[in-house]
């Protein structure tokens, strides 16, 4: 490690990666917030075509990281991949300012994302020894960066794009990507050294048990995301039609509720990390799969709350405070499972396949998003309370799968820590 001094109890490199990731997410979510409106209002595309393009783009954005991860581990190395990926993504955002380059711009951003997205979190684990207890918590800190960027992007890029012109909003997203790249380059002295890359013909250092554990975790998280991803889909529809959004004589915009999730991530992460640190100091640190299962149970309980509200409200509307309470519980459960899962994938990865393994985590997001789309298609066919009960059941099923995987996960994790 190049620098052993700490900031806020963690290596300085974590702050560098945190800020780099924050600005990358600002650029990604800023562009995404404008995309559908730009297609329907500026390019005059039909809703169905615009939705298809939006879905194809977001799917590719989470599929390319598995290909990019292989390229990083075999050929490019992490630093070069981040520099190339960030530059390509920034170019794609600026290309959005020119309507004839629209489709080329989307492809460019997705390709750059494939190199950038899995590489940055794989460097987080490289900052710590394998037996360092802070290693798992570091991904919760890193996760806050994702949500700060996701929280600010629609407010800034969305407002500028809507008020002053779509192209200005896209340009601001591109500047955010460049800001992240500048921070990353400036923070090189605090980042870990480049691990050795695998060469052609070299035996992959993955044992069968580790592969099975990662595959099992992937299946469980895919089931979980089928319920989790409904927040931006069917829950948003219910917030529009089934929630009384009047407060102090005003009507709360339904999109504001979408900002509650990243806001609560920022508010809940510090006390939760403090609690976990105290538990670890007392010798009661929770194994990762069990912690993830606890998060899935909490999310299941949050959806049970919505099911109860949908059944008890009848034809009336639910007070908006209940929806806010749902987001508190939902986000609290999310913090147990998603950052922990990302950290687990990074920790179980062999040094020469770190980026590829983290890329597999984003492939789970891809498969989970597809499964969420299939589940979401049932919204118009089921009574709303029954639909939310189904989501609770999916989250509970994911928790059960994670509990069944706990002994094997703990064995593999303990072995990796000892290496």
Automatic annotation (TrEMBL):
Belongs to the major facilitator superfamily. Proton-dependent oligopeptide transporter (POT/PTR) (TC 2.A.17) family. Residues 13-410 form the Major facilitator superfamily (MFS) profile domain. The chain crosses the membrane at residues 12-31, 51-72, 79-96, 102-120, 141-161, 167-187, 211-228, 248-273, 293-313, 319-346, 358-379, 385-405. The keyword Protein transport applies. It comes from the Bacteria. This is POT family proton-dependent oligopeptide transporter. It is found in: Cell membrane; Membrane. It comes from Pseudoduganella lurida.
């Amino acid at each position: 490690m190049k620098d052993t001094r700490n900031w806020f109890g963690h290596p300085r490199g974590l702050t560098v990666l945190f800020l780099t990731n924050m600005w990358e997410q600002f650029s990604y979510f800023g562009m995404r917030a404008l995309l559908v409106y730009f297609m329907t209002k500026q390019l005059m595309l039909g809703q169905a075509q615009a939705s298809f393009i939006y879905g194809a783009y977001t799917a590719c954005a989470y599929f390319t990281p598995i290909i990019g991860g292989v390229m990083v581990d075999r050929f490019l190395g992490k630093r070069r991949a981040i520099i190339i990926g960030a530059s390509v993504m920034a170019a794609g955002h600026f290309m959005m300012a020119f309507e004839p380059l629209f489709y080329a711009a989307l492809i460019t951003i997705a390709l750059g994302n494939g190199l950038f997205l899995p590489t940055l979190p794989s460097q987080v684990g490289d900052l710590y020894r394998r037996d360092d207890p802070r290693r798992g918590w570091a991904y919760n800190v890193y996760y806050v960066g994702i949500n700060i960027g996701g929280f600010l992007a629609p407010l800034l890029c969305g407002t500028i794009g809507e008020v002053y012109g779509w192209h200005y909003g896209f340009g601001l997203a591109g500047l955010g990507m460049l800001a992240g790249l500048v921070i990353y380059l400036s923070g090189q002295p605090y980042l870990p050294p480049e691990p050795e890359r695998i060469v052609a013909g070299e035996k992959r250092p993955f044992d069968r048990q580790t592969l099975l554990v990662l595959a099992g975790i992937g299946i469980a998280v895919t089931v979980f995301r089928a319920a989790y991803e409904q927040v931006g889909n069917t829950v948003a529809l219910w917030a529009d039609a089934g929630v009384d959004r009047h407060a102090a004589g005003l009507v709360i915009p339904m999109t504001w509720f979408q900002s509650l999730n990243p806001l609560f991530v920022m508010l809940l992460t510090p006390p939760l990390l403090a609690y976990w640190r105290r538990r670890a100091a007392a010798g009661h640190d929770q194994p990762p799969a069990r912690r993830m299962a606890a998060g899935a149970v909490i999310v299941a309980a949050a959806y049970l709350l919505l099911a109860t509200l949908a059944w008890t409200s009848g034809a009336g509307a639910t007070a908006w405070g209940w929806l806010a309470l749902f987001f508190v519980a939902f986000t609290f459960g999310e913090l147990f499972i998603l950052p922990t899962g990302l950290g687990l994938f990074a920790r179980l990865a062999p040094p020469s396949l770190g980026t590829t393994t983290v890329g597999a985590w984003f492939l789970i997001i891809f498969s989970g998003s597809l499964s969420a789309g299939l589940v979401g298609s049932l919204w118009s066919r089921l009574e709303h309370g029954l639909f939310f009960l189904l989501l609770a059941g999916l989250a509970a099923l994911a928790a059960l799968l994670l509990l069944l995987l706990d002994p094997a996960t703990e064995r593999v994790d303990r072995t990796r820590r000892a290496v």
